[in-house]
Amino acid sequence: MNQVGDVLESWPSDLFEIRTTSYGGRACFATRDIPADTEVLVINRSLGNSICHEFRKEVCSSCFQYEYGRTMKVRLPRGYSQIAPKGAGLWFCNEGCRGQFLSQDHIKHLVEAYETLEQNWVSQRSKRKAEESAENIEYAVEITAADVDRAWNRLECEWVQKVALLKLSRRSCFLPVIDEAEFACARFVTNCLFTLLTADENSPQILAFQCLQSNELPKIQKFPPLLQLQQNVYKTLKILLPPFLNSALNIEIFRHILGSEYGNSFGIWQLEEDSDSREYLGYWVLPEASFFNHSCAPNLEKCRRGNCMTFKLTTPVHKNQELCVDYKGILHLPVQERRNVLKDNWFFDCGCDRCLSETLVKKA
Ligand SMILES: C[S@@+](CC[C@H](N)C(=O)[O-])C[C@H]1O[C@@H](n2cnc3c(N)ncnc32)[C@H](O)[C@@H]1O
């Protein structure tokens, strides 16, 4: 994986740079005095996104518009009926959004891949019902890094190599029956592979992605069934993805996509409502925005406009001051509760100035 130095060469903003901190890995620091309300970063393309299963017909696949439970009106145009007779699980709020989505280079490969996953999802319906009631798996108490590596090595040696020797028509016997979470995850990884194949490999987005911190181990330790979920998704994609996207799929990239997703994704929230009543529609990964650390006294606010995300200063900052966001909407909580939320969800002990000063006051 790349070093941050490579990312900085083509960094999209000259207002801040990435440096290593003493308390929490890398973070972003202002390169000059900057006034309040400045947008320090604007991102127009995600590495990948995932819409929660229950919202997939109700959220625009292009701008994430959500209209209070109404199914989106616009589907793929007639010209796509050959490669995507079931509509590839894509819904749009209007033809402009559909046009924008379909205008991406090589988009037919993504549509074809989504359609294949969609057809598999529908065809497994009856098997899924039978499996759901049969499931009763026990998991080890504490999984180690070596356990995770071993599980993937086993999959590579015993499953990938065996399936690769089979004729295409025989491979479907080795398809796992997947559930909603696995289906959504398969679409997310497909979306990421598409971006990795079609974006400029020297773009800040791709270079930043390669440097993202992975939280694979703490996440699997906290939710052991995830390892099985990931392997089911990998098997599904290895068998079903058409050649263009399959050419980019290997275990290393797959683990990095999911490992980095766990600590670096941003929620996609309904826009029209306030923060107490808005729906959580899904999430997306924005690698260039993933070097902002959390602070319980942040100076940046995130704002989504359609499929564009901006990071704007809420106060003026001085040269060398750190630029931070609030990861979880927890600023109103007492210090120990904030720290528990961050530890449970993001696996870190918050080292921000506010936590340090409030903890010291408590101890004094
Ligand atoms: C989105 S990344 C931010 C960039 C990260 N520091 C890096 O080097 O890639 C989130 C991770 O940064 C670290 N981090 C962010 N905010 C922190 C804080 N307030 N205190 C300690 N660690 C923090 C944690 O390891 C967290 O999982």
Description:
The protein has two domains: 4-44 and 286-334, Beta-clip-like, CATH 2.170.270; 48-265, no CATH class. It is of the alpha+beta class and 364 residues long. The protein contains 14 helices and ten strands. A four-stranded mixed β-sheet has the order 1-2-10-7, with no helix packed on it. Strands 3-9-8 form a three-stranded antiparallel β-sheet, with no helix packed on it. A three-stranded antiparallel β-sheet has the order 4-6-5. The mean pLDDT is 92. It binds S-adenosylmethionine. S-adenosylmethionine binds at residues 23-27, 213, 263-264, 290-291, 293-295, 346-348, 350-352.
Which terms would index this structure?
3-stranded antiparallel beta sheet, 4-stranded mixed beta sheet, 2 domains, 364 residues, Beta-clip-like, binds S-adenosylmethionine, alpha+beta
